[in-house]
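My current task is to audit a protein record that another person submitted. Alongside the sequence sits a line of tokens, each denoting a local backbone shape. Please read both lines and tell me whether the tokens look consistent with the sequence. Do not assume that whoever made the record got everything right. Thanks in advance; the entry in question is below.
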Amino acid sequence: MPDVVSPKDPPGAGLGLRRALMGPLLSMEDGSVDFLELAPENWIGVGGRYAQGLNALGERFPFVMHGLSLDIGGPDPLDMNLLDGVADLISRFDVPIYSEHLSYCAAGGHLYDLLPIPFTAEAVQYVSDRINVVQDRLGMPLVLENASYYAQAHKDMDEATFIAAIVDETNCELLLDVNNVYVNAVNHGYEPLAFIDALPLPAVRYLHIAGHYDEAEDLKVDTHGTDVIDPVWALLDEAYARVGALPTLLERDFNFPAMEMLLQEVQRIRDAQIRYAARSEEAQV
């Protein structure tokens, strides 16, 4: 598909729109966050007070969308009804970004987990064909996240090469999940900055940052249920040095603290973006 870059990407720092946070999100002041990210599967066809809340937030904050069940790498046919629902939300709220996980989550039915795709040339072609179907249907690039994983079924290439090959085949874009890089680097024993540097960085559209669970010293689990740790904040600074201070989302899916605490982490994203801007200005002097 032709390159399509929306001029409407929200700047700054965002927060995930979760139903459990609907009340606090509706009560927070304008400007508390720069955008909200919603999972379309949780909002397609929703009515009643949740629909009213969604509409109210859509009038105050830009939305981006991050899907949970597109199953871009799975063996089942693509869910075109899901894509129709996604297209409807994109149109209703003028959503500039639809992202998903570079993984699979169904095989003869939904697996309720995000599983790794084999890093092979055959998988590159298979996934690319499916990405092109999605992009043609929506008329916009699909933005794919580097996923966390804990075991790898098979690989003929490393993950960054696999991702780069898919970007080259499809002109899709990337969601750089900084916490996933950190988690995978610990779990699989590689250098996180080397992985980031090996990605096709011009394809990065926006970023995620989140907390994780320490199962063991050498096993981190991507949970989105805790505060972001200092090494992941430091990795965000390094990512900005490479791709610029692109829009960045704080992911929190459960174990929610008070909204004040969440907004403090959102502010830490903004602070990192301010540091990047200051360094850029100094470099130009």
